[in-house]
Amino acid sequence: MSDPQRSDPGEAAGPGRDGPKVSVVVPYRDRLDNLRLALAALADQTLPADEFEVVLGVLELSDAYLALCREYADRLRIVSVLAERPWQVGYARNLALRAATGEVLVLMDVDMALPARCLADLYDRHFAAGQRVCLVGQMIDYDNNTGDVTEVDVRPYEYYRKVLDDLAAGGPVEADPRLAARHVIPWSFAWTALIALPRALVTGHGLTFDPNFHGYGVEDLEWAYRVARTGTPITMGRDFWGVHLPHLRSVAANRRTEAPNYRYFLGKWPAHDVELACALGDFEANEAYPEFRRAVEEAAGIPGGSLAVLRATAAGEHHLVVGVPVDATGRWAGAEVSALVGPDAAVEVLPIAGVALPYADDAVHRCTVLPAAARLPGAYRERVFAEAERVSATPVQVLESRP
């Protein structure tokens, strides 16, 4: 662990604490212009410098990085955990998480600049009494990966300091579209560009990031899904925000990794909310989820029921059966389904309707779609058939409803 400015954790401890109030956890590689601005904003925090630390998980060995950290050695308590390996944001975050000693963790991407009172207000208003909450920060000037960025105008910190000060002076900041949406699937809004929660929650439940995600996207949603499973409320912070800093971006490259990452998420946690996020995207799934759940129950034709996907494996071949009606306990029945899977097959039941499937292209030998799936509304029905065709190595069999 390289440590341009490391003091004894006890030096930052207040009464009743073993470490600083806040650890700002940042994954980093090759974004020096962004890091310079992020550190400058952190150095301007009104929270005393001995009450927070900046912990960076760094996946490069760079003299330029260390030189920049040294510039702030007298203003910030910086902890760097270095590893020379290919970029993986979850791995970098885990390096920093394991080194953090603060009572509260602020997970922040390097392309975020915080207003001067951010950390002090965050701690005093949301965590000083030991609250157990996961607070999602607003991202100002973020367009959610809607367009390429091929050139960046690097502006000095003084420009962003004025932007931050003007926003803070203008009253409540409500510029993130997630604030106006219904929070039906709370984890779908928990983007780790800026998010805060107690460190005890992370250590107590092993809430590190899954290293099996690669490239852009989804690793934060899967992490937030596990946070939600602990029963911890995930809420948007109206008084917790930062300004997103520009950087180069290729939407096409991001999409190429986002799709398989979503499938991995769905395979790990098969559920209707996850499959809908996989099919539509996180923000859109949150809006559509109540309607989708009603549509699935109606298609199943069972009060309180749902649809499931069965994967039957026999003689080394996988047969997928999509649109299987199940009751409220997840049980399926019927001679037709039993005949399709066969008496000798090992059967896995996935509690999903099939609008997204957690398999690669041509991953199953054959796929059968049952009539219940065809009873879904048009857009969902089309996605079921498209996914079935994508994963099946042979033509999809569609069973017709009996008169």
Could you describe the 3D structure shown?
With about 400 residues, the chain is α/β, with parallel strands linked by helices. It has two domains: about 10-270, Spore Coat Polysaccharide Biosynthesis Protein SpsA, Chain A (Alpha-Beta Complex), CATH 3.90.550; about 305-400, no CATH class. Helices cover about 35% and strands about 20% of the residues. The protein contains 13 helices and 13 strands. The chain has helices at about 30-45, 65-70, 90-100, 120-125, 155-170, 200-205, 220-230, 250-270, 270-280, 280-300, 335-340, 370-375, 380-390; strands at about 20-30, 50-60, 80, 105-110, 110-115, 135-140, 195-200, 235-245, 305-315, 315-325, 345-350, 365-370, 395-400. The strands form two sheets. An eight-stranded mixed sheet has the order 3-2-1-4-7-6-8-5, with helices on both faces. Strand 2, helix 2 and strand 3 (about 80) form a beta-alpha-beta unit. The protein is elongated. Residues about 1-15 have low confidence and may be disordered.
